Amino acid sequence: MTRLLSSLVLMAIAVFGINWIIETFLPSIPDNYALPISVLLGITIGFFIYIQIDNRIG
């Protein structure tokens, strides 16, 4: 898998995971806010993990 594809897959997994956590454990957050919050956090966390992996590999 190329670096770009692996980073996009990692970000998508992070978005779906955070969205599931928000909808399951924080039902007080309205649905129209859950998706943007999970997209923002998922992309940020996924990109951070990708950068950490990329810096170690070289």
Description of the molecule:
Helix content is 86%, strand content 0%. The chain has two helices and no strands.
Task: Spell out the blueprint of helices and strands.
Blueprint: H1 3-25, H2 31-57
Write a brief structural summary.
This protein has 58 residues and is mostly helical. The longest helix is centred in the C-terminal third of the chain and has 27 residues.
Note the main attributes of this structure.
mainly alpha; elongated; 2 helices; single chain; 58 residues
Structural class: mainly alpha
Report the portion of residues in β strands: under 5%
Unreliable segments of 5+ consecutive residues? none
Radius of gyration: 13 Å
How many helices?
2
- Give helix % range: over 70%
Mean pLDDT: 86
Order of helices and strands: HH
Give the tally of β-strands: 0
User: Termini, distance in Å?
Assistant: 16 Å
Largest sheet: none
Shape: elongated
